[in-house]
Amino acid sequence: MTKDLRPPSIETAAIEWRDGVPCSTRFDDVYFSRDDGLQEARHVFIGHNRLAERFASAPAGSSFVIAETGFGTGLNFLAAWQAWAVSNPSDSSCLHFVSVERYPLAREDLGQALALWPELGDYAAELLEHYPPPVQGAHRLVLAGGRIRLTLFFGDVLEAWRELDFQADAWFLDGFAPSRNPRMWDQAAITALRGHSGPGTTLATFTAVGEVRRLLVNAGFNMRKTQGFRRKLEMLAGELPKGPEMGAGENLRPPHSIAIIGAGVAGTLLARNLAERGLAVTLIDQASDAGMAASGNCQGALYVKLGVEFNDQAKLGLSSLLFSQRYYAQSGGHCWHPTGLVQLAYNDVEAGRQARFTARNDYPAAILRAVDAIEASRMAGVPLPNGGLWFPSSGWLEPGKLCRALIRHPRIQQCFGFDVHRLTPCNGKWHVAGNGEQDVVADRVVICAGHLSPKLIPLPNEFRFRTIRGQVSHLPETSLNNPSVVLCGPGYINPAHEGTALAGATFDLHDHSPMLSVDSHRENLSMLAAMVPGLLKGPAAAIDPAVLEGKVAFRCTTHDYQPVAGPLTDPSGRALEGIDLFTGLGSKGLTYAPLLAEYLADRITGQPRCLPASLARRVATQRCHKRIATASETIGA
């Protein structure tokens, strides 16, 4: 029986070990051959898809896509990863592996199963380190320094193939036997599989069931029976004939060069992502270095406020949070401080919201859990009057340092002190004109200049963006009882670092001054005193706001407070060729930026997209156009 779980959790697999092999009690079937699971994976999937030779011939900067039905223990994935590492030495080519699993293994079971294969130990350890918690939806894991990208969908197979955007070069048709798991092998599943295949796509499966073969033949595959592995006498292999193919995806020819305008967290993350995929990137900013504007705070909290209802907005927030936590742990270096974070129930309204949140949702404790005031105080190392939600894998970042570290790559050309005035398409390229500087010319351009983005868009200013001033205050460590974790509420306070703790930020809709404001400092102090009484040593009034240091930055947000990432469209929805928009991240840029940079890089390079279709719509540029009244509406007015 399926457990009645609240979202976003998903039921994990029930495992029973029989003769040293993991078996599913739900399907009463083994996860891999009792004879030798790794050799079975190599025989059935690696060999019959001719992967060694195809991997070896993949050019630098290209990608190869394997799709799989039934991730299980991940053994097939690790076998493919090992074959790729042996066969393809390029540092810029990428193996994408797309897999679906309705009942994911718990991390402990996965580790026990993969421990059977010591030769895969290094690969298994990295997979386990990044293996996502059991929550519904798509998870993108970036492994082997970006040479391996795993899109792991926890949910129903038909939902996965409907939501994910990719075209497979090879299929691993796995999962349990058709007689035990018929939904994985029925007409609807095969039809969906065909929609993600193109000329030359190959497939292999351990089964030789006649109905499966018939469905694949009817879908257009040339199928053959061939020798199975050990006790299985026969298996199936096939290929989609090469020829004209309708509906080819966009961006089949990735650009050779790309210009990115804006060197904040969003721009530098995207630049590094594309450079590692082999593209030549020119990073443009009017400042003298990266991370000087809104991304230039000395500290920033990794935080997102998840909604009470698990809708698409909450799904995007959760996906962004999990991906950013993995990214910073892997690539943040000394800039990342995983202290944990408490979202405080700082007043009755917030306490009520958190009570509804915990009643309607079921998040694994590895993501968050409710804590009372006693436990929250113990975690923070300071007395707290309220409990809240504990995020153990969050923390804080030094964003400016991160930006400057990200751009140190041989394929990233830095173009600072360049004040962009105009973007012009000409002869299939974009010309970026500045203040007397020589134009930067590139195949594609991405605008990610924060609140300055609207003035750079080469369309009439019809976008629903808002600029919001925010000021943070730098508090001397000696002026407060320093928490050891990030504390969030109506504002936030980070643990002190190098003698200073950052608190803020104000939310100023009508103040556009770039200068530090004493009133804004006073507002931050009042917020902090109300959120965590006793955190400041002495009353807030005892600290002179006139002598505090801090920083003013301007956030760019949208009408619906959701970010923008994707092709720039005109009001009719038509995408302009070769130009993208990446902005509107508001105050949650550190959380949203890593996943959306990955998504935008996927789109630009024509590789499988990390965002499912429902979430891609949440960040599309089209929704941000101002609504223009029709002629009839104007006359009627």
Automatic annotation (TrEMBL):
- Domain FAD dependent oxidoreductase, by residue range, is 258-603
Identify the domain of life: Bacteria
What segment(s) does the record annotate as region tRNA (mnm(5)s(2)U34)-methyltransferase? 1-241
Intracellular or extracellular location(s): Cytoplasm
Q: Name one GO biological process term.
A: methylation
This protein's UniProt keywords: Cytoplasm, FAD, Flavoprotein, Methyltransferase, Multifunctional enzyme, Oxidoreductase, S-adenosyl-L-methionine, Transferase, tRNA processing
Residues annotated as domain MnmC-like methyltransferase: 119-239
Which cofactors? FAD
Q: Which GO cellular component term is one of those annotated?
A: cytoplasm
Q: Which InterPro entries match?
A: FAD-dep_OxRdtase, FAD/NAD-bd_sf, MnmC-like_methylTransf, SAM-dependent_MTases_sf, tRNA_MAMT_biosynth_bifunc_MnmC, tRNA_MNMC2, tRNA_S-uridine_synth_MnmC_C
Q: Which Pfam families match?
A: DAO (PF01266), Methyltransf_30 (PF05430)
FAD-dependent cmnm(5)s(2)U34 oxidoreductase: annotated span: 261-637
Kindly state which reaction or reactions the protein catalyses: 5-aminomethyl-2-thiouridine(34) in tRNA + S-adenosyl-L-methionine = 5-methylaminomethyl-2-thiouridine(34) in tRNA + S-adenosyl-L-homocysteine + H(+)
Output one GO MF annotation. flavin adenine dinucleotide binding
Enzyme Commission number(s) of this protein: 2.1.1.61, 1.5.-.-
The similarity annotation says: In the N-terminal section; belongs to the methyltransferase superfamily. tRNA (mnm(5)s(2)U34)-methyltransferase family. In the C-terminal section; belongs to the DAO family.
| Protein name, UniProt field | tRNA 5-methylaminomethyl-2-thiouridine biosynthesis bifunctional protein MnmC
Its source organism is Marinobacter vulgaris
Its taxonomic placement starts with:
Bacteria, Pseudomonadati, Pseudomonadota, Gammaproteobacteria, Pseudomonadales
